């Protein structure tokens, strides 16, 4: 019986994800490093802002922090209840998932890697895709709760499998973004109207989620609205490329994509949306995609 759930990390994603949990559980605790955000969440959504010790006593504990290292640090200092499930929605490192899963199992706690996709709008609408790795029976127990903020909740395999799927998904997204911007640079230099070109591409075989949404809404509009920081995408590409190295694979396109996205330093990348990487390509070619 799941009687209480908690959510740790009320950032761009976690803020919205936690708001849906009141639909499936009467006791929803929230904790955030900057505690004022947790109080604000309580006032806005009727959750309960609690200290970290109490948040860690829930039957299911969700976390959505920037990196696996942040989650690992938190778990290292934690006393958890036997039988609880830690559902880590961070886009994290497969190896860390395996390590945390083994470590927590010794204390009778299940750890699931459960990263999400669908951006802040999907979190707000409760329509995220959630990929889950780890113990399958723990997954079955947690699934009805995860469904509060998801349209698709898919079990993808053992511990670490979901973090791997997420890293590959985001590297594909980065590849689509960069490749589309290269294509539009050619069209711009040919004097083609980019809005008309996009309309054609979005009715043709070259379309993607990036062409249908991000390119129009953030790049061609010149808004570059920040919902997903560039440094987080650099982290995800790094996770994918580490898997390439660990498995002795030769994958030139992904390596090239990493080089392009790492042209921005981490401090600068923290400040901007991932779509702003296209400004680098524009500078290199002395043109603006608009
Ligand atoms: P944000 O930077 O918006 O939020 C991060 C949250 O983690 C904040 O609540 C922050 O607290 C907290 N936090 C940061 N460091 C620590 C720490 N060391 N200890 C405790 N709490 C900490 O990130 P997002 O919500 O954008 O991303 C969260 C995760 O979700 C990342 O792994 C990201 O890759 C992934 N993701 C993001 C998407 C997006 O569109 N933004 C889409 C899909 C996945 P505080 O308020 O105190 O700063």
UniProtKB/TrEMBL annotation:
Question: Record's PROSITE patterns?
Answer: 3_HYDROXYISOBUT_DH
Does the keyword field hold NAD?
yes
Residues at the active site? 166
Q: Which UniProt keywords apply?
A: NAD, Oxidoreductase
Q: Residue limits of the 6-phosphogluconate dehydrogenase NADP-binding domain?
A: 5-157
- SUPFAM superfamilies named in the record: 6-phosphogluconate dehydrogenase C-terminal domain-like, NAD(P)-binding Rossmann-fold domains
Protein family (similarity comment): Belongs to the HIBADH-related family.
Query: Know the name of this protein?
Result: 3-hydroxyisobutyrate dehydrogenase
Q: What is the lineage of its organism?
A: Bacteria, Pseudomonadati, Pseudomonadota, Gammaproteobacteria, Moraxellales
């Amino acid at each position: 019986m799941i009687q209480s759930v908690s959510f740790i990390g009320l950032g761009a994603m976690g803020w919205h994800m936690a708001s849906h949990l009141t639909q499936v559980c009467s006791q929803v605790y929230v904790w955030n490093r900057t505690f004022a955000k947790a109080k604000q969440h309580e006032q806005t959504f009727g959750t309960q802002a609690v200290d970290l010790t109490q948040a860690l006593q829930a039957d299911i504990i969700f976390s959505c922090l920037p990196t696996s290292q942040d989650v690992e640090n938190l778990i290292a200092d934690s006393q958890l209840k036997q039988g609880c499930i830690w559902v880590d929605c961070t886009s994290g490192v497969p190896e860390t998932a395996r390590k945390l899963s083994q470590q927590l199992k010794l204390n009778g706690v299940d750890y699931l890697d459960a990263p999400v996709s669908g951006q802040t709008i999907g979190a707000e609408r409760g329509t995220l895709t959630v990929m889950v790795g780890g113990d399958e029976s723990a997954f079955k127990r947690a699934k009805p709760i995860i469904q509060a903020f998801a349209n698709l909740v898919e079990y993808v395999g053992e511990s670490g499998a979901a973090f791997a799927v997420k890293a590959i998904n985001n590297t594909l997204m980065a590849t689509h973004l960069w490749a589309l911007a290269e294509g539009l640079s050619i069209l711009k230099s040919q004097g083609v109207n980019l809005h008309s070109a996009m309309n054609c591409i979005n009715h043709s075989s070259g379309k993607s989620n990036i062409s249908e949404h991000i390119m129009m809404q953030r790049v061609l509009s010149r808004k570059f609205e920040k919902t997903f920081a560039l440094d987080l995408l650099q982290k995800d590409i790094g996770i994918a490329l580490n898997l390439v190295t660990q498995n002795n694979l030769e994958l030139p396109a992904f390596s090239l994509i990493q080089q392009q996205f790492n042209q921005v330093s981490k401090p600068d990348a923290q400040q901007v949306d991932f779509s702003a990487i296209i400004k680098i390509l524009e500078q290199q070619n002395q043109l603006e995609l608009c």
